[in-house]
Design a protein that fits this description.
single chain; 238 residues; alpha+beta; Arc Repressor Mutant, subunit A; SH3 type barrels; five-stranded antiparallel beta sheet; two-stranded antiparallel ribbon; 8 helices; WH-like_DNA-bd_sf
């Protein structure tokens, strides 16, 4: 393990603990010598991190403000991958925030981690919605966060047109298309609406609320149960 990554993990291990951790325990945890741990503690203390304790007793970091959160190599890989997905696949506002986050992360990466990031095996394609879908996405995110109903003009797969008043619950990306999960006031049930089939969308000044049987988590639980039942009823033969 590289020293910088060990220091990151050491901070995360020590901060907020009620009981001190001895150098011996830390040495066993990181598979290094106790002398290395003593040097690491000195490095952290000299950089302003409030490590308390001493040799033979143990160490902890009390509840004081710390520098920005430090991450392991795998954690940074996950954060960068997720940020690139948001940048490529969401509305303009979230996309810009994701790009800003990527720039901040990459600006402070040590050389070794920066090299790893630049040669990541994961590639996020620059898939883009058209301008109208991006507008719908941003409008729906606003409505979902503020618990406001929306009026939707929609064209289904059979080219049938309809107008619905919906309680928007969440946006789901199924690997090719964004879909709105909503509670339809006309049908009094969950319905799904693809963003690429929406014709127009307006936020209404009508608030709504969720409950145990009307929320995104409940919808997903119903979907999982449905597919589980279908799998049990139609086993695959080998």
């Amino acid at each position: 393990m590289h020293k910088s990554e060990r220091l990151f993990q050491l901070v995360n291990l020590l901060k907020g603990r009620r009981l001190a951790v001895t150098a011996k325990q830390l040495a066993e945890r990181f598979e290094v010598s106790e002398r290395t741990i003593y040097r690491d503690i000195e490095t952290l203390q000299s950089s302003g991190i409030p490590v308390q304790g001493e040799a033979g007793i143990g160490y902890l970091i009390s509840d004081h403000p710390l520098p920005p959160m430090m991450f392991s190599l795998d954690e940074l890989t996950a954060l960068l991958l997720g940020s690139k997905m948001v940048s490529a696949w969401t509305d303009p506002t979230l996309s810009n925030h994701a790009k800003s986050a990527i720039e901040k992360i990459e600006a402070v990466l040590p050389a070794q981690l920066k090299h790893h990031s630049e040669h990541s095996p994961y590639l996020v394609s620059s898939f883009k919605h058209d301008a109208q879908q991006q507008t719908f996405s941003e409008t729906l995110r606003t409505a979902i966060e503020s618990y406001q109903c929306v009026k939707l003009q929609y064209q289904d797969v059979n080219d049938n047109h309809s107008e619905r008043t919906l309680e928007p619950l969440g946006l789901v990306y199924w690997g090719g298309k964004w879909t709105l999960i909503a509670f339809c006031q006309l049908r009094q049930d969950y319905r799904e609406f693809r963003l690429d089939r929406m014709q127009s969308l307006t936020i209404l000044s009508i608030p709504f609320s969720t409950n145990n049987t009307k929320n995104l988590t409940h919808y997903l639980a119903l979907i999982r149960a449905k597919y589980a039942n279908e799998s049990d009823e139609n086993p695959v033969s080998c």
